[in-house]
Amino acid sequence: MLLVKNVSKVYDNKKKAVDNLSLEIKKGEIIGFIGPNGAGKTTTIRMITGIIAPTQGTIEINGIDISKEPVGAKKNFTFVPDHPTIFDAVKGIDYLNFIADIHEVPIQQRKERIERFTKAFQIYDALTQTINSYSHGMKQKLLVSGALLPNPNLFILDEPMVGLDPHSAKILKDIMRDHCQKGGTVFFSSHVLEVVENLCHRVAIIHRGKLIACDTLENIKKNSTATLEEIFLEMTKDE
Ligand SMILES: Nc1ncnc2c1ncn2[C@@H]1O[C@H](COP(=O)(O)OP(=O)(O)OP(=O)(O)O)[C@@H](O)[C@H]1O
Question: Per the database record, which ranges form the ABC transporter domain (predicted)?
Answer without folding.
Answer: 2-233
